[in-house]
Amino acid sequence: MAAVRADTADVVVVGLGPGGEEAAGRLAEAGLDVAGVEEGLVGGECPYYGCIPSKIMVRSAGLLAEGRRIAGHAGTVMVHPDWRPAARAVRGATSDWDDKIAVDRLVGRGVRFLRGSGRLTARDEVTVADTDGNEIAVRARQAIVLAVGSEPAIPPIPGLARTPYWTNREAIRAEEPPRSLLVLGGGSVGLELGQAFCRFGTPVTVVEGMQRLLPREEPEAHELLLKVLTEDGIEVHTSARVGSVEYRDRSGFTAYCERGERLAAERLLVATGRRSDLIRLGALAIDVDDEAAALPVDERLRVAPPVGGRPGIWALGDVTGKGAYTHMSMYQADVVVRGILGEGGPPASYHAVPRVTFTDPEIGAVGLTEWEARERELVVRTGYADLSASARGRTHQIGNDGFVKLVADMLSGVLVGGTTAGPYGGEVLGALSVAVHARVPLTVLREQIWAYPTFHRAIGDALRQIG
């Protein structure tokens, strides 16, 4: 066994996804000696296997859908799907899954980059192991930042582990659309990728164990997506739990559902959520239960504050359990950097977390759903507006299905949540995100002038329903 080499740094950042990279870079630019540790690709899941390449696929698939809508509205057209341009665009955007540009950017900001897996081996130490088995034990003088992200959560379905199933990573790297696709999971990842492949000609079946698609969101979002995805040709099974999976080279995958369905496809995409591996991180070294779902953090993102000359331990991103979003990790990175530099400022707040599912139609949401607000025993009133009624000047176009739903707390007189579903739903969400974040009084929102004929005008219609 090779000897463990010793090193020191002011700050050790474990995990260089969007938030980890930002924190490491800013701390280095502030004059600290920062060691950044990453086993995979610098930049994390988002630019290589998540947000960016998946949106290229979604956009390409959307162009096909728009082309098919021309008939009867603007002329005639023949649409012939071709996956190759989309695959080339994905490879270009990811630099063919090479992070040299990102590493150079990080080093250019003054960070010492260590390629390898980092695990906590003491309250103030991270041991980094490279692919050759060489290890460096880096002792932190001031802080350790844990930004290890998450990985696809694979359910313990009998037979699944022995099959060549896909996660989002294999789906993103696909050189051609599968002849047929079975998607386990009706959340954002499964629906976005499933709809994209469907529009390129792949027969797609989605299986969701809960009663609704996007089970965290408003039931109206499920109803809308169920209608639209079915019209796209996607077969949707909800409240369907898979009891076992088998795979054969010639016939592909077969999933056997507990209530009797037998579903077959060439490829199987597992999109049943994500998890952070605290065991691999070595969480026990800092007295954290390594079987927990997330690292416990306070409002300053501290797992453990600096004490007795020992460095503080901060965490950010997916591993905190506050939302597996790139924008969350970047937001938390700012709180962590200010904490380490002693700059103060506001603590982390999660009352207005925005989230968008980039299906067609897009589903944007911020803050609490109606159910969550009632669970908190707020005095709830809701407002709902159908886009077909709010944007009459645009209803001659097809593909304009959608709605706006608002959730208000009548005691405080502010919105605590909202959903914008429809064309540009993620962009329309911006107005509601500001309103929920800033706790803008309903009386002020009702005075707002909403441009006509826009989709965001539906916000005004929904406000009038609240009264």
TrEMBL record:
InterPro entries given in the database record: FAD/NAD-bd_sf, FAD/NAD-binding_dom, FAD/NAD-linked_Rdtase_dimer_sf, Pyr_nuc-diS_OxRdtase, Pyr_nucl-diS_OxRdtase_dimer
Source taxon at top rank: Bacteria
Cofactor: FAD
Species this chain originates from: Streptantibioticus ferralitis
Domain Pyridine nucleotide-disulphide oxidoreductase dimerisation residues, every copy: 353-462
Entry similarity comment: Belongs to the class-I pyridine nucleotide-disulfide oxidoreductase family.
UniProt-recorded name of the protein: NAD(P)/FAD-dependent oxidoreductase
Keyword list, A-Z: FAD, Flavoprotein
Keyword flag Flavoprotein: yes
A Pfam family it matches: Pyr_redox_dim
Domain FAD/NAD(P)-binding: 10-332
Keyword presence, Flavoprotein: yes
